[in-house]
Amino acid sequence: MRNINAVITGVGGYVPEKVITNEDICKLVDSSDEWITSRTGIKERRMLDGDHVGASFMGERAVKELLKNTGTNPEDVDAIICSTSTPDYIFPATAAIIADKCGIKNAFAYDLSAACSGFIFSMVNASGLVESGRYKKVIVVAAEKMTCITNYTDRTTCPLFGDAAAAILLEPTTENLGMIDSVMHTDGSGFANLHMKAGGSVYPASHETIDRREHSVYQEGQAVFKMAVNKLVEANEEIKTRNNLTSEDVTWVVPHQANMRIIDAIVRYMDVPMEKVMVNIQKYGNTSSASIPICLWEWENKLKKGDTLILSAFGAGFSWGSIYLKWGYNPK
Ligand code: UT7
Q1: Which of 3.40.47.10, 3.40.50.2020, 3.40.309.10, 3.20.20.10 is the CATH number of 5-176?
Q2: Could you read off the pLDDT of 44-82 as tens digits, one per residue?
């Protein structure tokens, strides 16, 4: 038994006001509400509007709400990790910008890039800091402005993505709560099926990369779909078996919100009723690594101390993983 566990002690979130409906998408590409709804489960998504506002705009609001909800003095925060694939800038880290905007002056701050699995990877990372005993208050904020890397002439990807941010605070506990176990995996051969080609050091921005629309998500949907289902089922099985968890033991399943058909498939394998599954894909679409903490944010008032949660995500890399945790507090 570990002496110190890292437990979530609060949640904050932010979704932009502007709603993009399926009807709006159908004005841009040849599609239909029926196709998008039946193939993905998405009815609408949010878009961060305005000039020169990026992931940190949303991350700042999520973290400020988190600090308020938990009564945390920003100067007491030890570390802040920002999970994002859409950082404000290549450098400095968006985490540093969010920290500055939130008055978090005594923390070290860095970004973690693991696409849609970024929250899972960041939470494991942050938990390690807390479990070490050296850090007492660690924030993970997932902030994703996916609409800025979405190609609105590509009907196979543009209905999918939306913008959001959400944050959690991790603190130490000696109770049997918080992060209990995790599995994480990466298979870099997945690059071909899911990537953004330009804007990095291999293809820096140029007139050509812009003309070829290489600054947006490229996805082979079917290949990603199959891998997502297989690997999420495997990861969830791995974590359940290792911890002797039955389906009845699980209070809530919190899946990454990429496609309702993927969620249905993994939940069927897990043999868990839909009432125990957090789903908000219909409202927000795929918000990449923000999707899991946005669910925690929306469901916070239904979560009770000791509830068993399984969080799982799959994304670019390929990267995937699951977390088994026990919720740390009753509705406030
Ligand atoms: O979050 C990170 C990981 N990402 C994922 O997990 C996403 C995984 N993939 C998916 O969710 C699905 O593959 C998509 C939603 C992206 C696509 O659904 P699909 O059922 O795999 O469709 P498909 O790509 O096999 O396309 C089926 C048909 C094609 O037409 P043909 O070739 O059969 O005539 C597409 O051209 O649907 C067509 N199509 C569309 N039709 C109307 C593709 N996009 C659209 C559209 N509207 N928006």
Answers
A1: 3.40.47.10
A2: 999 999 999 999 999 999 999 999 999 999 999 999 999
Could you tell me which residues are beta bridge partners of residue 195?
218
Burial 68-100 (b: 16+ CB within 10 A, else e): ebbebebeebbbbbbbbbbbbeeeebbbbbbbe
Domain boundaries, the chain: 5-176, 180-326
Q: Which residues are catalytic?
A: 116, 256, 286
DSSP codes of every residue in 18-46: EEEEHHHHHHHSS--HHHHHHHH--SEEE
DSSP state of 150: -
Name the CATH architecture for the domain at 180-326: 3-Layer(aba) Sandwich (3.40)
Check whether the bond before 318 is cis (ω within 30° of 0).
yes
Question: Is it true that 5-176 and 180-326 share their CATH fold?
Answer: yes
Mutate-to-test residue for ligand 1 from 225, 231, 232, highest number of ligand atoms within 8 A of CB? 225
CA of 67 to the centre of ligand 1 (A): 40
How much distance in Å is there from the Cα of 160 to the middle of ligand 1?
10
Q: How far apart are CA 292 and CA 33, in angstroms?
A: 25
Q: How far is the CA of 43 from the centre of ligand 1 (A)?
A: 15
Atom of ligand 1 nearest to the CA of 286: 1
pLDDT tens per residue, range 95-154: 999 999 999 999 999 999 999 999 999 999 999 999 999 999 999 999 999 999 999 999
Measuring CA to CA, which residue among 262, 261, 269, 202 is closest to residue 234?
Answer: 269
The C-alpha atoms of residue 238 and residue 270 are separated, in whole angstroms, by 11
